[in-house]
Design brief:
- This protein has 186 residues and is mostly beta strands.
- It has 3 domains: 2-62, Roll (SH3 type barrels), CATH 2.30.30; 65-125, Nucleic acid-binding proteins (OB fold (Dihydrolipoamide Acetyltransferase, E2P), Beta Barrel), CATH 2.40.50.140; 129-185, Beta Barrel (OB fold (Dihydrolipoamide Acetyltransferase, E2P)), CATH 2.40.50.140.
- The protein has no helices and 16 strands.
- It has strands at residues 2-3, 12-15, 18-28, 36-43, 49-55, 59-62, 65-76, 79-84, 90-94, 109-115, 121-125, 129-137, 150-155, 160-164, 172-176, 181-185.
- The protein has a 6-stranded antiparallel β-sheet with strand order 1-6-2-3-4-5, with no helix packed on it. It has a 5-stranded antiparallel β-sheet with strand order 9-8-7-10-11, with no helix packed on it.
- A hairpin with a 4-residue loop joins β15 (172-176) and β16 (181-185).
- Keywords: Cytoplasm, Elongation factor, Protein biosynthesis.
- Belongs to the elongation factor P family.
- Pathway: Protein biosynthesis; polypeptide chain elongation.
Amino acid sequence: MASTADIRNGLCIKFNHDIYKIIEFLHVKPGKGPAFVRTKLKSLTNGKVLDNTFSAGHKIDVVRVETHTFQFLYSEGNDFHFMNTETYEQITLNRDVLDAPDLLKEGTNVMVQINTETDMPLSVDMPASIILEVTYTEPGVKGNTATNATKPAKVETGAAVNVPLFINEGDKIKIDTATGKYMERV
């Protein structure tokens, strides 16, 4: 058993008969009244996100997890196939477990958290950014733009990303996997 002092991003806990991963947290100590921890939890079974407030010192049930590096092989409908880079064991995960499935390119390495009690995969952590090639975008038109004009572009994985006007087909761009937004041209 752990307490609210042990809360950190990425921690997996048992809460309300489900397993949740802490996405965000904030320790709050108001001038009047007891301290508390405001958290944003993501269910690892159905992907729903909920906000919860724990009082200071509240006991939480931590799930023991192991993190392994897996390589994305291919997708088949809603199933995504991964291979452990050390043991070459393959697993299949549903699209709902992934944070940004549209940005996954074949051969990308991801970190998979596995529950040590049940040996079931809990979550997939994507790399912070990914480099993809633009396969289609309209030509940029200079003119009535004040600042930060963008246009839609389709990348090699099929995802749609808003990019600046100077990006053309065939350019490689870096995309933030957490937000799905354009970062820079590579």
